[in-house]
Amino acid sequence: MIYLEPDNRFTPVCHVCGSQARKVHSQDVRTIRDLTLALVVVRLVCWFRKVYCTKCAQIVVEGLEFVRPYQRVTLRLAQYIHELCKMLTVAEAAEHLGLDWKTVKNIDKVFLEGAICVVTEFSYSASNISTFEEVIMARSSSRSE
Ligand SMILES: [Zn+2]
Prior knowledge:
Helices cover 32% and strands 23% of the residues. By secondary structure, the protein is α+β, with helices and mostly antiparallel strands.
């Protein structure tokens, strides 16, 4: 498990229109599956903000560059699933990844419909979240005071 928390140095953006949202409504947490590392299933425990977007005039989930709103897999895992489905059946891809076949089918379908652009390069560098190490460091330094 890798724990991710919002970095409050960055203003969250609305996932619908992309505008900066100054007012944070609440926070929630979601476990998101990422690419497997060697034989280890990687799960991100991701805290994210719900914001009030004045342009959309509603409460929305903040936009994160590595996962689509309300999804339980990262974009790069979704892309990997789509690539697997070019070579394997949906059932075989699902078994390979330990995912439900309906999940795999739906992810592949979204790619086939062109709703997701192919991610050619993935980067956490511009992400507005802290890594697990930063969170641990922040917590340990606050405890030692
Ligand atoms: Zn908006």
